[in-house]
Amino acid sequence: MTTEETHTDDILSSLMIGMSESYSQTITDADIKSFSGVSGDKNPVHMSDEYAKESRYKKRIAHGLMLASYFSAIFGTKLPGAGCVYVSQSLKFTRPVYIGDTVTATVTIKSLDIKTRRIFFDTVCTVKGRTALKGEAEIYLP
């Protein structure tokens, strides 16, 4: 058994249903522009004040998938941690997120399959205690 396998076995054996971790970030104009550059999503509802003013949102909104990427930050660094592999993610966007909003992404273990080394999570992003994004994720721990 390699050191890496021993490490991931230690992580897997330490996990319990209900364990949770969070990550928070305040959305900035620079974040939206950077995400647009990386993703290629130049939708004017994210990029143009004039366009967004005429939309149902009345001002620019953050990319939904930028919010979802915060889950990846948690999985890769906190729970379960380095070396894990994202298998799947469902997403339901429930409210817009604006520049200046502080988003808190939270993942909570809902079940474990030790034999297949799969961990199943509830995932949620909130702003001021209100859900903006929710879903479920599956992570594999090699």
Query: Strands of the largest sheet, in order across it?
Result: 1-3-4-5-2
Instruction: Report the CATH architecture.
Output: Roll
Shape: elongated
Q: Supply the number of helical segments.
A: 5
CATH superfamily: Hotdog Thioesterase
Helical coverage, percent range: 25-40%
Computed CA radius of gyration, to the nearest angstrom: 17 Å
CATH topology: Thiol Ester Dehydrase, Chain A
The biggest sheet, with number of strands, parallel, antiparallel or mixed sense and barrel status, is: 5 strands, antiparallel
Low-confidence stretches: none
The succession of helices and strands, N to C, reads: HEHHHHEEEE
Whole-number average pLDDT?
A: 94
- Assigned CATH class: Alpha Beta
β-strand percent reads 25-35%
Features:
142 residues; alpha+beta; Thiol Ester Dehydrase, Chain A; five-stranded antiparallel sheet; 5 strands; elongated
Q: Explain this structure to me?
A:
This protein is an alpha+beta fold and 142 residues long. The chain has a single domain (3-140), classed as Roll (Thiol Ester Dehydrase, Chain A), CATH 3.10.129. Helices cover 32% and strands 35% of the residues. The protein has 5 helices and 5 strands. It has helices at 3-14, 29-39, 44-47, 49-53, 64-77, and strands at residues 20-26, 85-93, 102-113, 118-127, 130-140. It has a 5-stranded antiparallel sheet, with helices on one face. The two termini are 12 Å apart. The mean pLDDT is 94.
